[in-house]
Amino acid sequence: MKQDRKWLYYLGLVICAAVWGANFGVTRKAMETFDPILFAFLRFSLSLPIFFLVLKIREGSIGIPLRAVLHFAIIGLVGVTGLEIMVVYSIKYTTLANASLLNVAPWPIFAALFGPLFTRERISRRLVVGGVAAIIGVCFVILGGGEGFNMSSEHMTGNLLALSVSIIGALYNLACMPLMKQYSALRVSTWIIVFGVLFMFPLTIGSWGSMDWSGLTASHYMAILYNVIICTVITFIIWNDSMFRIGAARANFFRYVVPAAAVAVGYMFFGESISLLQFAGTLFMAGGLVWISLEKKDAEATSLINKAV
Predict the structure, then answer these.
(1) In sequence order, which residues have a C-beta less than 8 Å from that of residue 125 and are 6 or more positions away?
(2) CA end-to-end span of the chain, whole Å?
(3) pTM, full prediction
């Protein structure tokens, strides 16, 4: 992988994570009107025509082999339907600080631990050092917000769900890697979402009739548009492509940009304050991510990527 191209992929990961972080503020407003699962369904289902159009234009076809259907269906069920629902209910049953910390912080650790089951990525000393620095930084960002981490029994269900998000999310990312050796990141993203939407639809049936559709305003439509175009179509393609070329273990540490971006959006648009601990945590996290990004991938991984391109 050429050095100049490598930086583009790392930049892509940072941009995607920042967009997802900014989406916390957008989604917070949308949840005042929409049922959470219905909003997730709208986000993914409305993105599908765009995915198929782009796939047809770029690659000339939109299908997948019949032998791959079960593989895509399982990943779509777990990585889109299951993961989205778990995120929603983890937030419902625990504090925002708990959910943010347990959803985000352990994810890259599990990706690194489970990585050898799916890929040939090695766990280097640089990755460990940079990862530890990034973990400390993201903990400062989340816990510096004032809510604190609450381990009381009333939040245990939500805490366990939030931790499960990290485990299942890491496995979902890693399970995509073998598929992206055979198909493009665009085709993988499209068909995973197809099956995710199919499995999610039955869970929304009770919500359609209870929605006040006539009461939707321009801000609601803008929230949907932002989620469909930017948070789903653009970021899914960029993230999956960059993750494949950088490696799942390294790429997932860049998820730590998400809470930092959410804090920045809260400060700029919702009048929330930023503590000194959060600012220091952002610097610490950024240092860890830069340290990780300076590592060169081994020759075997590079030759595999060049072969796949």
Answers:
(1) none
(2) 11
(3) 0.76
